[in-house]
Amino acid sequence: MIPPSHHRPVEAFPPSPRNGVGWRRLWRAGILSSLLCVRLSALTMDELMNDPKMTPQRFAGLFADFKFVLQPFDVQDPKVFLKTQSGDCIDYAVLADHVLGAKGYETRLIRVEMVGSNIGHAVCYVTESKAYLDYNNRVYFVKLQKCGATIREIAGKVAASFDANWTFAMEFTYNYKEDKKHPVYIVVKTDPPAKDPDLARPPRAAKPSG
Amino acid sequence: MKDKTIRRVLFFFLLISAVLVAVAVRAVVNINRSMASSDWVNHTHSVILELEGLRADLVFGDGALHTFVLTGDARDQAAIRAALNSVSDHVDIAKALTRGEPAQNAEVAELETLVDKQGAFMRDVLAAKQGGNADALRALLAADAGRAAIQEINQKIKKLKDEEMALLTERDTASYLQAQTTRWTVWSGVVLDVLLLGGVAWLIRDDIAARQKAAIALQAANEQLEQRVKERTAELVAANAKLSSENLERRWANQAMEHQLRYNNLIINSITDLVFVITKPLNISRINPAVSRQTGFDLSEIVDLPLKKVVRLTATGGDAMFDPVARALNDGRDLQDQPALLVDKRDRTIPVRFNLFPLRDRDKIVGGVVILQLSPTPRA
Fold first, then answer.
1. Long-range contacts of B159-162, Cβ-Cβ distance < 8 Å, separation of 24 or more
2. What is the pLDDT of residues B196-246, one digit of tens each?
3. What are the chain B neighbours of A113 within 8 Å (beta carbons)?
4. Beta-carbon separation of A168 and B42 below 8 A
């Protein structure tokens, strides 16, 4: 079982009626939502899968209002994740992998394990964007984190975002139907970088889009 | 002195900079090594965590299996499946983590075999339960009495953990020593730099002291020079005053001499005796006005004429070849009151009394003075 994600607080002062800053944020969010015609109802899997304009950037922009809630199960059912608008890093990463992979993007699920117990984090790397989608970045303006393609580079960047050291990182595959993670490559930090198993990755095979 | 000091100070500062750079480079290298050591410590912790996770999931799965056998609850079945998946993950990760440690990696491989065996057993139990095959289920569980497989896995995990703990101690010691080296490097560099800075301070202080000493010496030399200038000026003023006084005296003396000379000339010119100044070869060089009056010669006509042309001694002592005037002059003797004849411009002769006085410049005779006295005219 992948340990639940450890998240740093993304907002030190969440919106609150008692907090002037919170009221202002809510007011701005309302005005902007009206102006930009942003839908406030819950997303559905169909909408995500059938969006012809779906890109990694667009996908990342749909989760700004989602809350971080540590789930007891390894990967949440995507419909529950979208409906409740709450989940953790692996729910988001697996959903991104599922949706963007179906759109023809080459996506990779990466789990980065940091020092200590239960400090793991999962992201979805998109080769075409040379960036990864991180649930922690959903509220920031720049939601895609540019990064090199090797697991070591991704692990280094993810760990740096936590101000932590990483010990190992694993690329894995997952599908909702089977509900099982399959390790593809495991990179250990103390191993010589030249011997990282993902460096021997075979050339990319063309994926059918749609 | 100045240039030398600047060179020395620059040299010291270069040395200090070199030490700082060396310490910084060394510290960064040590920090990198320290981080590498720390990574190994973290790595060891990670292996231990994976082994612990493996054991926990295995025990949890085993418990869920026995519960499922009793209850047949689907949730327990899902828990078994999740536990088996998780166990598989832990084994894969443990294998990857021990890639660089062949002994541990071999043990993890053995552990994997045991875990696979246990997994197969659990799947068999699940299948027997789901298939309603009570005899097979009973037989399987009976074979697992005492949970020997789990015990063996636990033993293996414990052994691996102990080895990892030993590695942890070793790596932690390396990390500590690395940190200690970094501390020593930094402190040594700081101490060396402080010493070098002290050296620079001493050098500057020494230079300032030398400059102060030189300034004092220069001031003393200036004062001495000033004193000497004052003394010399005073001497010059005194000498000038003395010279002025001497000049005044000399001028007075010259004026007195000029007066005397003028009076002498007046006396000579006023007397009636005829005065000739002659050179040593007996030529006339000067005369007084009485000569011109008596002879009719102008000064220009008579100067340079031989004395013989104008004056002749009448008594020569019978030796015509011998000139008594030349002889007396050579001997430095006076000739006084000698009878002589004066020959004027018209060749007339006048009897006179001849007197010769040699002229001396120090001990050398340079000429003479001839004074002719007119003989008294016989009274009628």
1. B159/B107, B160/B47, B160/B51, B160/B104, B160/B107, B160/B108, B160/B111, B161/B48, B161/B51, B161/B52
2. 999 889 988 988 999 899 999 999 999 999 999 999 999 999 999 999 999
3. 46
4. no
For the beta carbon of residue B102, count every other beta carbon within 10 angstroms: 9
Position B314 confidence tier, pLDDT thresholds 50, 70, 90: confident
Q: Please give the C-alpha separations between residue A197 and each of A202, B42, B249, B370, in angstroms, as whole numbers.
A: 11, 21, 124, 148
**Helix count and strand count (H, E) for chain A:** 6, 8
Q: Specify the pTM.
A: 0.63
Contact B324, B301 (CB under 8 A): no
- What residues of A are in contact with residue B46 (Cβ under 8 Å)? 113, 115, 167-168
Across B163-173, average pLDDT: 88
Q: Could you tell me which residue, B97 or B363, shows the higher pLDDT?
A: B97
User: Which residue of chain A comes nearest to B36, CA vs CA?
Assistant: A190
User: Which residue is associated with the tokens 């008692």?
Assistant: A18
ipTM value for the complex:
0.70
Cβ–Cβ of B46/A74 closer than 8 Å? no
Contacts of B45 in chain A (CB under 8 A): 115-116, 167
3-state secondary structure of A186: strand
Residue of A nearest to B82 (CA): A1
Separation between Cα atoms, residue B149 and residue B147, nearest integer Å: 5
